[in-house]
Specification:
The protein is mainly alpha-helical. The chain has helices at residues 21-32, 35-52, 69-88, 97-113, 116-126, 130-133, 156-170, 197-206, 214-224, 240-251, 258-275, and strands at residues 6-9, 144-147.
């Protein structure tokens, strides 16, 4: 593994109070997981907790309502929590899981977010994308080397959500694929750089932000049809290059933020899962 695709950090953490056994089991599972699994756990835990707390609409709802109470817990578990349990390898009863998982997810997110500022500063100094710092294992007793996720998306919802994770980790580049595409100044692999939406969709499937695939083209078409520029959708719905151009025009709107890009990709992933 090349130095540009990995980094290391030593982080000191100490528990402030005793934690329930299940939380300790989950933290141990997170501690021993591979870099790609840890990244997926964190990417799922955030939206999962937003839905638990009533800050994210439930699966299949296009209106502004959110759920609350036990119904919200069950819906959030069905949508993202079950996958979170699977990634951590936890053994939870089907009846109890929706109600005990939020505490586990909050503990993992809290442990992961504690050193974010220091790790991000280190990543900036070393020239690595700040998001790579978030993939370091929070341990305190050893140096950990973590590579970026290598698993590829194989379904349309996975592609859209994986692209959202890529942009959330590495940053949004609203122009052609990746910054410094001809490597005049940057030495990082293109797959580690900030990406445009189209590049992230391609990378989610192939691992390369420039490589085409039928599944990535399907994701591009699906997303383009959901976006409007000046109140209009794409004019050429059967031309993938025109659809890419429509997405690029949408992401280049001056007020566009990385957070809004991630939210749109997540929403598209949710919608395609409901429709399938």
């Amino acid at each position: 593994m090349s130095p540009s695709s990995q980094t290391s950090a030593v982080v000191s953490t100490a528990p402030q109070s005793p934690q329930p056994p299940l939380v300790l089991v989950a933290l141990a599972a997170y501690d021993g997981a591979s870099g790609d699994v840890r990244a997926d756990v964190l990417a799922l835990a955030g939206p999962y907790l937003e839905q638990v707390d009533g800050r994210r609409r439930p699966l299949g709802y296009d209106h502004g309502r959110t759920l609350a109470g036990p119904v919200a817990l069950i819906d959030a578990y069905r949508m993202r929590g079950a996958e979170l349990v699977s990634l951590l390898g936890l053994q939870l009863g089907a009846d109890d899981a929706p109600f005990v998982l939020p505490e586990v997810a909050r503990a993992i997110v809290a442990a992961a977010e504690a050193p974010v500022e220091a790790l991000t500063a280190r990543a900036t100094v070393t020239g690595q994308p700040a998001a790579i710092a978030l993939l370091h294992l929070i341990d305190g007793r050893r140096t950990v080397r973590v590579s970026l996720p290598t698993r590829r998306a194989t379904t349309l919802p996975q592609v859209l959500r994986s692209a959202a994770r890529i942009i959330a980790r590495q940053g949004h580049w609203p122009y052609d694929y990746v910054p410094d595409a001809f490597d005049r100044e940057m030495t990082q692999p293109h797959a580690l750089r900030p990406m445009s939406i189209v590049a992230a969709l391609k990378c989610a499937v192939t691992g390369d932000p420039h490589r085409d695939s039928l599944l990535a083209d399907e994701a591009i078409a699906t997303l383009a049809l959901r976006l409007e520029v000046d109140g209009e959708g794409p004019h050429f719905r059967d031309d993938v290059f025109r659809l890419e151009g429509h997405i690029e025009a949408w992401e280049q709107i001056p007020a566009r933020t990385a957070a809004s890009v991630v939210a749109v990709l997540e929403a598209a992933g949710d919608a395609t899962e409901v429709a399938s």
